[in-house]
Amino acid sequence: MYGEDSKCFEHSGSMWEERTCRQVRQWQHWGSGCYQYSCSAGRLNIIVDNRTFPCYYPGQELEIRLLAEGWLHVGSISCPSCQELCQETFENENKTCKPAIGEPSKLKKYSYPLDPMGCGCSCSSLSVILSIIMLLLSTMHFSIDMH
User: Residue 57 gets which letter from DSSP?
Assistant: First the structure.
């Protein structure tokens, strides 16, 4: 995203990928990307595809996994310091950036949306259930014949 309340942030880790069940594409230019951000609740928040990812300390790697238009986008963004982007905003509101902290342990595992990308059978649930019922019936019939 470009414009007011947007900035280019460094991508961290490995090259960003876009995945479908049949294809993987890696971004040619993955060193940085421009995203909207907000300064609220004493933190810098980076917004990707209308989802907010809070930065708790400078250098924190935000792991991004978002499903958009049939593609799973996977990569990470490096957080700058809150003061770098939010100090002026917070000063105007008589507030300050909260001190840097490590991510709370429960957030490490669950804080970011991990959109699933199902790559299995495209069969409907009903046809799968019917197949299981038919298999069970044929097994029961077979066992009855054996006695």
Answer: S
